[in-house]
Every structure is written in C-alpha cells, then in structure tokens.
Amino acid sequence: MKLTVIALAAALSLLSTAAAPALAAPAATAKTETSATAVGQAVWDLAPLYASDAAWESERLAIQAELPKLKALQGKLGASAASLAEGLDAISSVRRRLGRLITYSSLKADENTQITANQARNQQALSAYNQFGEAVSFVNAEVAAMGPEKVQGFVAAEPRLARHKQGLTTILRLAKHTLSLKEEALMAGAAEALQQPQSIYGLLTNADLPWPSVKIGGKTVTLDQEQYVAFRADPDPKVREQVFKAFWPVYKAYERTLGAVYAASLRGNVFQARARGYASSVAMAQAGDNIPNAVYQTLVQEANAGLPTLHRYFKLRSQMLGLKSAGYQDVYVPLAKATRKYTLAEAEQLTLASLGPLGQDYTAKLAEAFKGGWMHSVPQRGKRSGAYMNPAAYDVHPYLLMSFNGEYNSVSTLAHEWGHAMHSVLSNAAQPFETADYSTFIAEIPSTANELFLVDYMVEKAATREEKIFALSQELENIRGTFFRQAMFAEFELKAHEAVEKGEPVTGESLSKIYLDLLKRYHGDAQGVVKIDDLYGIEWAYIPHFYNDFYVYQYATCVSAAAFFAEGIVKGDTALRDKFFAMLKAGSSADAYPLTRAAGLDLASPEPYRALMRRMNATMDKLEALNAGR
C-alpha cells in the first residue's frame, strides 16, 4: 500500500467551503521494451508555481485582499441567474489561486519538515484557506435556501452556470445537513482548530520522535520511518526481529500522547457530524460523494469472508521462507530475492513499458511528464514520509513526492503515484477547474491499476523461475497490502469513531486494543497462521491516513476495481479501455459511484471483491506450482 494523499483537491471543491484541506507499493531484469523514453528528475521544480518565496508572499496578500469582496457577495447570489454565475465565478477564481498557493507552501514544508520557515509559510497558507472558508461560508446555506426549482431555472437560463451545475446539485442534495448562515460561519471559523491534531501528528512523527540507532551488518543505522520500511524486508530473520523490537517501542512510548492526538481528531469528526445532523461520522464522510453505505459494509463483509484466502497466502509464505512459526516481523520479507536494484530512469522505463496496454498516447504523455520536474524522489532527513500526488495547482501540473531507494517497491510506488498524476492530467484537459477534481472513490483506481499492469508485465517478462516467483509474490503482496490491510484499517476507523459516538473513553491504550484484535484476526493469530505480539497493537499510530477520515477503505475498493479494468485492458478490450479513460476524464462532473457503474462495475456488490479473491487464489496456484518445481 502506498501512503498516497490526493492533497488539497477535495478540500478546494465548491462543496467544502467550511472544511479543512486534506493534507496530508512492484520488476523484470530483461531490457525494457518501449518506444518512449524519459530521463527523470529527482527534485521537483517549483518555479512554475512561484518564482520565489517573495512572489508567493505577494500572492498570499493579494488573495487575502480579495476575501472581503467575496464576503460582500452574501445575500446577492439569489438575485438573478447572472448574479449567481458572477458570484460563483468569483469564488471559484480565488479558490483556484488558493490551490496553487497551498501547493507551493505544502511542497516546501514537506521537503524538510525540520525547516521552521517552511512550516510557518504552510501555516500561513492554511490560515488563508480557512479565512477564505469563513468568507464564503454563506454559499451552501444561501443556495440551499433558494431551493431546487429556482436553482435549476437559473442553470437553464445562464450558460455560465454549466460548470457549477454538479456543485449546485450536490449543495441541494445536502441541504438538510446545511446549517444557518451564522452557524456555517462558526463551523468555518472552527476549521483551523479542527485541523490541529493532524498538524501535531505530522510534526511529532516526522520531525520529533527519537528514532533509535541500531547496528545492522556492521553499520549504525538511524531507524526512522524510511529505514524501518527498508529493513523490515531484510532476508535475515534476526535483523527483521531486531528492527521490529527497536522501532515499535518508540511509538509505544508515546502511546498516551499519540492516543490523545488521534482522539482529538475523532472527537472533531464526531462534533461536525452531529452538528450537521448526520447519523454517524462515516455517513458524513460518504455524503459528499454520495456513496452508498452498502459499499463500506460490503467491503468489510467480503474482506472478512476472504480471510481464508489471506491465511492461505501467509501459510504459503511460511512454507517458502522455511519458517516453522511466522511472526508479524516476517510479513514483509520477499519470497524471492530481487536480482537487482533500479535507477530512477530505469524505473520510469519499466513503468512506461508495463503501461503499453493503455495506448501510445498515454505513455507518450507520461514520458514527457517524467522530464518536467514534477517529482521529488530523493530520500533525505526530515522529508515527509510516504508518497503522494498533489493535483491542486490546476494551472500548472501535478506534483509528486516519494523517496526512491531503488528497490522494487519504489518502482511500484512510482508507477502508482504517476497513475494519480496522469488521472489529473486527463481530467484537467477535459474538465473546467470546477469539475476537474475527482473523488477518492475513483482516485485510487488508476494508481492501483498501474501497479497491476506493472506486476503483470513482470510476470510476462520474467526470464527465470526465480524472477517469475518474485513477480507472482509481489502481486500477492500487492493484494494483501492494498486490499486486506486497507480493509483492516477501515474496520479500525469505524470502531474508533463508534467508540467516540457511544461516549466511550478513547485513549492510546484502548486504540491499541482495538487495533490488536483486528491485527490478530486478519493474520490468523488464533489459528497459528501468524503470531502477533501485543506490542504491535501500537501500529495504528504509524498510519497518517487515519487523519483523513474514512479515506483508506477506498484503496481496497479501488484495487478491486483496478483488477477488473487491468484484466480486461491487458486482454485487448478496447471498449473497456475507453470506458476507463472516460471515467478518468469525467473528473467530478457527476457523482463518483454512478461514474464507476457507467464504467461497468458495482462496488456495492460482492462480485468485484470475490473476483479479486479469485485472482489471488489463481496467482497462488501458479506460485505453488513453481515452488514445487524448485
């Protein structure tokens, strides 16, 4: 699973004017065959955003000067169709500029979380966004008060409102959860305070936790988050055990503090849900994109029904690794040794080759984008952990962050994040700013599809049995990490929010207990499949996505959808490929769930998840046959 954040874009949509922005892993040894070439850059170029910090500051002040003008629109939107169009256009224009402003500040802050000046600049940008939210907090209430008949009449009469139609439709749909003008202003004013748990968590875990130093292979290693990821897959079981025993006590030592931070985030979510009259926090999270609750419920049910398949995989791993008793520290070690490492340029070439089924036009655009300075991939001290794509600078291009270390997982992460970036490229080209954003419910489909294209390519091009075993095992690990692990996270989020909603005490210790119970069930601890030590219940504190509420379940739904698309497209189904691209180009011009149904699948039904289980079992059949022939 990639720590991917579609940064800021959802928060900058028309319908979340009072919301906080959402700021926030597989390789052939044969020559890559592709007509497109690219030489990637390892550090992004932020000059297309602003020429300097001073230029950024000038724009920040200019945006703030626009806010009183937006506030002055209050009470005027309903005067006429022209008034509504002019008002929404003015708000959209400032929001568009804010997206660019916050993109620059957040990227600079994430390059090195230890640089105070960059953190301060990012706080200024978020403050500007919150002030914007306060200034336009009247919009939803005012539009809702106009009623469907009047709004629909205005849309029919004024062509300029066409780009706002989907946003207006959603406001009307959510009218029963829209508060009075005064209450909406109060909610907007509370946004900055409600963001603080995520900000505190990010600084604590990325910059301030005291990472231990350990000796591995005769060298002293600072076991921070990036080094943990690197060494948890070490082929030596003693090293893996050493890494886990050194890394997780750091989080455990801060269990009370991290628990208090996350509990504050949970209580903020519950407060907002109750204030807006939602039955639950998850209902509020689903409402914006109009996603049926049946999707979340079906995912959890089918993930639990598929646990025998997951346990079969763990047992196969233990057999192939020669483990008499597997522990949690053994989950990440590859089943076959990678025969090489990759340079960034080689990873890009491999990605281009594997995405051939998507067509030459797609790969040519991607090859050109690789050269554009869109990505920061150099590992460095203080850099934000994980990986993400930020699409919020509509007038420039997407930006990507990851730490490329040459391992196969980094190649897969690169393919994943560029799947996001190309989604934004396609959507931006087809949609106006107002509908160029897209739901997370769709966002993870092209990114996880890229991973599947990559691993399918690896299997096809593997020159030896060992290479094929490596490729098949990576496909299984991809499904484990992106489907089962995210479904487990989804259950944890649901239980944690429900605890607050029921008035139960929520502490670091209670959160660890919830997580530990899930960790043991998913890994078959009671059945002797994988032994889970109690210490590892603290792992919830390692997952930054929990601060983007009810986000991670969409990895699991999306990988199921991605498997559907990848299977058909690889077989040459051009009609399905056309539907796939149509879905990506649609942006947010319609609700996400109907867009996926129009593309040919229903994620509220069991079938996509069961199809993924069939794929996983078929892959294990191949792997077992190869293993038997060793």
UniProtKB/TrEMBL annotation:
Enzyme class: hydrolase
Keyword tags: Hydrolase, Metal-binding, Metalloprotease, Protease, Signal, Zinc
Function: Has oligopeptidase activity and degrades a variety of small bioactive peptides.
Signal sequence coordinates: 1-24
InterPro entries the record matches: OligopepF_N_dom, OligoPept_F_C, Pept_M3A_M3B, Pept_M3A_M3B_dom, Peptidase_M3B
Cofactor note: Binds 1 zinc ion.
Keyword Protease: yes
Protein's recorded name: Oligopeptidase F
Enzyme Commission number(s) from the entry: 3.4.24.-
Family as reported in the entry's similarity comment: Belongs to the peptidase M3B family.
Cofactor annotation: Zn(2+)
Domain Peptidase M3A/M3B catalytic: start-end pairs: 233-611
Upper taxonomic lineage: Bacteria, Pseudomonadati, Pseudomonadota, Betaproteobacteria, Burkholderiales
One Pfam match: Peptidase_M3
SUPFAM superfamilies in the cross-refs: Metalloproteases ('zincins'), catalytic domain
GO molecular function: metal ion binding; metalloendopeptidase activity
Gene3D superfamilies the UniProt entry points to: Oligoendopeptidase f, C-terminal domain, Oligopeptidase f, N-terminal domain, putative peptidase helix hairpin domain like
Occurrences of domain Oligopeptidase F N-terminal (ranges): 142-209
GO biological process terms held by the UniProt record: peptide metabolic process; proteolysis
